[in-house]
Amino acid sequence: MSMAEQKRVGVYICHCGGNISDYVDVAAIRDEVSKDPDVAVAKHVMFACSDATQKEMEKDIREQHLDAIVVASCSPKLHTHTFRSVAKRGGLNPYRYVQVNIREQCSWAHSDHPAEATQKASGLIRAGKERVLSSEALIPIRVESKQAVAVIGAGVSGMRAAMALSDVGEEVYLIESADRPGGKVAARSKLFPDNSSGKALTDRMLAEIKKRPTIKIFTKATIMSVSGSIGNFTLKVSVDGKETLPLVAGAILVSTGYDDYMPAKGEFGFASGSNIMTLPDFNTLLESGSGDIKVNGKVVKRIAFIYCVGMRQVKGPNTYCSRVCCTAAISTSLAAHERAKDIDTFHFYRDIRTYGKQEALYEASSKAGDTYLMYNEKTPPVVEQKGDHVRVSVKDQLSAKKEIEVDVDLVVLVTGMVPRSNSAQVASLFKIPTGSDHFFNEIHPKLRPVETVINGIYLGGSCQGPKTVSESVNSSMAAAAKIYGVIGKGTIELEPIVAAVREDACVWCGKCKDVCEYDAISQVEHGGKTVAMVNSSACSGCGICAPVCPSDAIDLARYTNPEIESMIDAFSKDAGVTPADIAEKESGGKEMTQMKEFPARWNAILAKLGDEAKTIPEMGEATGFDLQDLTFQVMTMVKYRVLEPAGIDDDDEYYSYKRKR
Ligand SMILES: Cc1cc2nc3c(=O)[nH]c(=O)nc-3n(C[C@H](O)[C@H](O)[C@H](O)COP(=O)(O)OP(=O)(O)OC[C@H]3O[C@@H](n4cnc5c(N)ncnc54)[C@H](O)[C@@H]3O)c2cc1C
Ligand code: SF4
Ligand code: SF4
Ligand code: SF4
Questions:
Q1: Residue 651: its pLDDT value, please?
Q2: CB within 6 Å of ligand 1 — which residues?
Q3: Confidence of residue 573 (pLDDT cuts 50, 70, 90)
Q4: Residue 350 CA, closest ligand 2 atom number
Q5: At what angle do helices 561-572 and 114-134 cross, to 10 degrees?
Q6: Cα(516) to centroid of ligand 4, in Å?
Q7: Which residue out of 278, 322, 355, 359 has the highest number of ligand 2 atoms within 8 Å of its CB and is therefore the one to mutate?
Q8: Confidence of residue 316 (pLDDT cuts 50, 70, 90)
Q9: Is it the case that residue 102 has pLDDT exceeding 80?
Q10: For the CA of 319, the nearest ligand
């Protein structure tokens, strides 16, 4: 396509229901942009992302033969995909679209300076228009994927995900470092909330796994190296310290779990006698017999549980709450009552966090007569050996900080979940970032909760942070679903915003390879010389390599030098928006006057709606209002709960709205 043909750009400037237009004079900018010979369509719209405006843009692209569109609205993080889809539906290459952020980076940031905000928005839009004209149409990168998944860690999380992946036709390599699958749960005979047996659960899962020939389990396995990228990873795995197998997988699920916190010597009296032990050790003791509980041959009648040991540390790395341990301790206390009669339990806690349905256990414990004493992190309980018993002293926050001493036969330290000791090594092997708590970090806890920054590597279970069994399984099943969604078709489509090396300019100095954290750059021979090459399926498009190249041999798609330079030139041109335009805005221009008409318009819309549900075009026909204005009014009425959405029409084109009851 020649440059002359390309110069039919559509520019849409969004009001964002006042979020932008209360501070930025969108009408003045539209008037200015319309004078640009490259701009075939310039509009200011109430909500660029509304159904009606999206349809309007698609229509403009087709009928006005637009070659590119610029949407000046909110952050591209929010709506890049929305408007890429609009471009695509209109018949454009989706990358012939640029979003300009005039909300977060302009109207919100400069709300006290509307004149300057308007000037800045105008400059940003000019820059966006130049950028879209300089940018190339891109096509997604297509990669063939191996229909196999490597699941690292065969605890409940890894085992459950392996079964799910096998059931949808993927081959699974289940790689476990211990001598048996099952993880922490396999060692437990009673799990909260329902007292089900962890051992029975993991045995059942293992039996199910064995029925599936497409799951290959490797125990006593160590991953020696990982190479490749999404669709085609190669893992070198040593089994039992002997053979090293190369396993090829399209995706990797890391479900390596957690470690129990191990108290330091002397922490709450730990290691000063066998009558002070951790919760996991007490669970093992409790589950290993029946009748009287005995420690060192002495029958245990009084037990103190000290909560938050090693967790929520004031001085220490584990500042987080381990979420599971309150419920685990209470459930263990109930199990102790069940096993032996006439036991008294004392719970020295900071806060009780038995969230959701687990609260029932706290209630049961309270009803069983358990004593709860609340301590403050600044005055933790003091534990002392006193002959054949242990004394726990505390300033109880619930009885006006009264000093209370409790003599017990056994102290149980309620320890929580910490990152596994091998987590730094696993993180470096798979290049997974860790958080300040040193657990593995997903991209976004709400929006991308099981994906990592490395394409094709996913997280599941408690390696992400403390979780109950059901939460662990939920997350690994989410990862399994995500993996199947990506590799299930055999061909993966990847974002084409990646780096590329111009071989003629590269002099192979290796600087780009050194800085690439994604191992996407390799050294190759090309046309008789050594040059750098980017593996586009491993490249994340981070752009770090481009500025370090002394020969300027690296281009990052959508961020090429011509694009960036054209934006800077356009932004630095004299602003076309004049102070007079701005003064009118500041003194309350015509849009402000329109706001006074809201009640009359709302009444007219409500009168035409009656008790029916109508789409915006139907309301437009009934009221005779301009569709742009009507969209704004309807959205504002929804915001103020005057109207509510009432479903989408049969063609999935328009939402209907009705009076809110
Ligand atoms: C004291 C305590 C009591 C608890 N009680 C309950 C309860 O009653 N009910 C409940 O719902 N939850 C309970 N939990 C939480 C429960 O233990 C976890 O939710 C569960 O174990 C998480 O399973 P997972 O598969 O994610 O991790 P894990 O059980 O830790 O399994 C991880 C697996 O990965 C393997 N692995 C690690 N690194 C590698 C590697 N590099 N290569 C290969 N394999 C590797 C490990 O050997 C292990 O088999 C309790 C937790 C604690 C601390
Ligand atoms: S779950 Fe309870 S015991 Fe565990 S860290 Fe949080 S508050 Fe402390
Ligand atoms: S930094 Fe530039 S010159 Fe050096 S190897 Fe990479 S592409 Fe080639
Ligand atoms: S853009 Fe980032 S990930 Fe891609 S090759 Fe360059 S440094 Fe590596």
A1: 66
A2: 152-158, 175-178, 183-185, 191-192, 223, 255-258, 260, 279-280, 324-325, 328, 331, 416-417, 420, 422, 426, 461-462, 467-469, 472
A3: confident
A4: 7
A5: 150
A6: 5
A7: 322
A8: confident
A9: yes
A10: 2
Task: Retrieve residue 61's tokens.
Answer: 């692209």
Residue 369, Ramachandran bin (φ over 0: left; ψ between -120 and 50: alpha; else beta): left
DSSP string, 295-307: ETTEEP-EEEEEE
Tell me the one-letter amino acid at 549: C
Domain 600-659 is of which CATH architecture?
A: Orthogonal Bundle (1.10)
Q: Whose CA is nearest to atom 8 of ligand 4?
A: 516
pLDDT at 506: 97
- What residue spans define the domains of the chain? 3-138+561-591, 148-257+420-492, 267-417, 500-555, 600-659
Residue ranges in 168-229 assigned as alpha helix (H): 198-210
| Residues present in the chain in total | 661
For the domain spanning 500-555, the CATH number is 3.30.70.20
Residue whose CA lies nearest to ligand 1 atom number 25: 155
Q: Which residues line ligand 4 (CB under 6 A)?
A: 498-499, 515-516, 518, 520-521, 534, 539-545, 556
User: CA torsion angle for 458, 463, 465, 469 (degrees, to 10)?
Assistant: 100
CATH class for the domain made up of 267-417: alpha beta
Q: Quick one: which H or E segment has residue 212?
A: none
- Minimal-distance CA residue to ligand 3 atom 2: 549
CATH architecture assignment, domain 148-257+420-492? 3-Layer(bba) Sandwich (3.50)
**In 3D, which of 437, 483, 411 has the Cα closest to residue 162?**
483
User: In angstroms, what is the span from residue 513 Cα to ligand 4's centroid?
Assistant: 9
